[in-house]
Amino acid sequence: MRTIWRYTQARITGVNITREHIQRARRYNAQAGVRDCDFLLNDFNSIDVSDNTFDAIYDFEATLHSTDRKRTFTELYRVLKPGCRLVSAQYCLLDAYDDKNPEHRAIIREIDNTNGCYCAGNTVASTTKAFQDAGFKIIRAFDAFEEMGDVPFHEVFVSKTGGRFFGTRAGRLFTKVALQVGEFLRILPAGTVKVQEMLIGAAESFTEAGKRKLITPGYVFICEKPAGKETATVA
Question: What is the reported pTM?
């Protein structure tokens, strides 16, 4: 929200199901001088606005947490004005993924379990179909990491190439030890180390998936709600 507002000065409505996230976002927005933006404490499957409300919608790795992408995309279709566009970045399985390979399945299962997402079974083709079944016309679809990135996405978890030391193996180990000390001294709440272990599992599974080209966390879909169309319904 802050980045898009900085470039466009557009009025943006954020949708989030967690009250604490919204409170934190409002605090950060105030610190950054963001104006005329608001939030809805809503499930993205049930957004509390009228049909044909928004001029544009962006979804960057948010709806991948949906258990039913077609239902979610249908709701986004409903609240978007005819002739306007949605940009969505999704986790998608790539051609190298083999569902009959137990190692591949285990890696994707770990990604799902540690990221709270639902990658299993969601290929580029199935995600494309979910958008189309919701009523969208796909203008363009591409892997942002292949077309626009200089560094493979999993490199941020392997070396400092990605510019994030704390994402590397050494950085993760340093962080874990620091959190263990903090939790032992009761500076940090109980359970902090377990959360870090979950995040380490996410980093390691993404590293394995990236090396084998099983998945991309940045498959971008630029979709349009055809002009003159009414809202779609879920079958």
Answer: 0.86
| Total domain count, the chain | 1
Structure tokens at 36: 């005329």
Side chain identity, residue 73: F
Q: Give the number of C-alpha atoms closer than 13 A to the C-alpha of residue 180, restricted to the C-beta side.
A: 7
Mean pLDDT of 36-41: 96
> What CATH number is associated with residue 72?
3.40.50.150
Long-range contacts of 226-230 (CB under 8 A, 24+ apart): 226/82, 226/83, 226/135, 226/137, 227/82, 227/83, 228/82, 228/83, 229/82, 229/135, 230/51
Q: How many helices and strands, by DSSP H and E, does the chain display?
A: 8, 6
In a domain, 8, yes or no: no
Please check whether residue 190 lies inside any domain of the structure. yes
- Model pLDDT, residue 160: 59
Q: Is 150 within the bounds of a domain?
A: yes
Token code pair at residue 138: 């796909």
Q: How many angstroms separate the CA atoms of 107 and 91, rounded?
A: 14
Instruction: Give the CA distances from residue 83 to residues 58, 219, 231, in Å, rounded to whole numbers and listed in that order.
Output: 15, 23, 12
Which domain, by its residues, includes 108? 42-224
Q: Is residue 68 in some structural domain?
A: yes
Looking at the DSSP bridge assignments, the partners of residue 14 are 39
